[in-house]
Design a protein that fits this description.
Blueprint: E1 5-7, H1 18-38, H2 43-49, H3 57-76, E2 79-93, E3 95-101, H4 115-129, E4 134-140, E5 144-151, H5 154-161, H6 176-188, E6 196-202, H7 211-220, E7 223-230, E8 236-237, E9 256-257, H8 261-270, E10 275-278, H9 283-292, E11 298-310, H10 312-328
Parallel strand pairs: 3-4, 3-6, 6-7, 7-10
Antiparallel strand pairs: 1-2, 2-11, 4-5, 8-9
Length: 343
């Protein structure tokens, strides 16, 4: 499973907005103290009259305390990185790789709310039905990337699915073949004799590779390839995120992206699976479940990763040591060690 950094209570991070205010107040207070001191006379003369007064130590104490405060706030936000295996499970099931198209064309609105969100909704429901099986997640556009290797922790898979956007894959395109190849690799890493399948959710605008040949190779490895078409044959324009504009070609014409059902059917046929178009009903979900239901179940062993590794202790200890240092830094020079210049 991919390690992800996150904060369990990120609202505490808003306290960091107080740091600039504290710095400005300190700067203002220092300026006012300096002006008040100047009123008493020449700075050089005053320094001789107050030999044990330090101008550096108070500022140093302040900045050490501020850094300690920053670490305390970060600790309160509970930074987390990585996961701890809670338990190893033995159960019977199948192994499925979910491959999601995240190219810009998946932002088209010919299905509600748009293609990508509709695909994520479908995958969320499907992952619930696969709760007793092992599931992996691949995202692809111009490249394919394994986001979650095979795991029985479907909760983590659902959490990841909710955060997917086209920005996750910088290179645009629709490399369905690469996604299938990556799925084959991920499924073959398992030694289980459970039935295996790859489910591709895409608008099937394949421009990057030979997806049909990849599906044929999967079938030879006894891996079923199902394709879920997202979109409509009539198509829709591709919105440009953050604007009210749509993507245009070099001639200035609005680009219309259309679901290529013929290609989807060809890929599914080569992979000995089924092609189905996702609509507003549960028809696509039921068809995929029926297809997976024909796969042989076998014992699958997996570790459940559901507890995040807490990292707040690191920042708490850093804050503690800084506060100790702050206490050790005296506000004025000690007359017994005034000849030793620590700061």
């Amino acid at each position: 499973m991919t390690d992800m950094f996150q904060f369990a209570q990120p609202d505490y991070l808003f306290l960091l907005l107080l740091i600039p205010v504290v710095l400005l107040l300190f700067y203002y207070s220092s300026r006012m103290s300096h002006k008040d001191l100047v009123k008493f006379g020449n700075r050089e003369l005053l320094r001789d009259l107050m030999p044990h007064v330090s101008t550096i130590r108070p500022a140093l104490k302040f900045y050490v305390a501020v850094i300690a405060l920053i670490f305390i706030i970060i600790a309160l936000a509970r930074p987390q990185f990585g996961s701890k295996p809670e338990e190893t499970l033995q159960r019977r099931g199948i192994e499925v790789m979910l491959a999601l198209d995240v190219s810009n064309s998946m932002l088209a609105g010919d299905v509600s709310p748009n293609r990508l969100e509709r695909a994520k909704q479908l995958l969320s429901k499907l992952s619930e039905d696969l709760a007793k099986d092992k599931v992996g997640v691949i995202v692809f556009a111009g490249d394919a990337r394994m986001q979650i290797p095979l795991t029985a922790d479907y909760v983590t898979a659902q959490m990841f699915l909710s955060s997917i956007t086209p920005a996750i894959i910088p290179r645009q395109g629709t490399a369905i073949g690469s996604a299938i190849d990556l799925g084959i690799s991920g499924l073959q890493d398992s030694n289980s004799k459970a039935g295996k399948a790859i489910i591709v959710l895409t608008d099937v605008e394949n421009h990057e590779d030979n997806a049909v040949e990849a599906a044929k190779f999967a079938a030879k490895k006894d891996i079923l390839v199902n394709v879920v078409g997202i979109g409509t044959p009539d198509g829709a324009p591709i919105p440009i995120e953050g604007t009210q504009e749509f993507k245009k070609d070099l001639s200035g014409n609005v680009v219309i992206t259309k679901l290529n059902e013929d290609m989807g059917k060809e890929i599914a046929s080569a992979g000995k699976g089924i092609y189905v178009r996702a609509d507003n009903s549960n028809g696509a979900l039921k068809a995929i479940e029926a297809s997976l239901g024909r796969l042989a179940m076998a014992p699958v062993e997996t570790k459940i990763y559901s507890q995040r590794n807490e990292q707040f202790a690191i920042f708490a200890w850093l804050a503690f040591f800084l506060l100790v240092i702050d206490l050790l830094i005296l506000g004025r020079q000690n007359k017994w060690i005034s000849r030793i210049k620590f700061f």
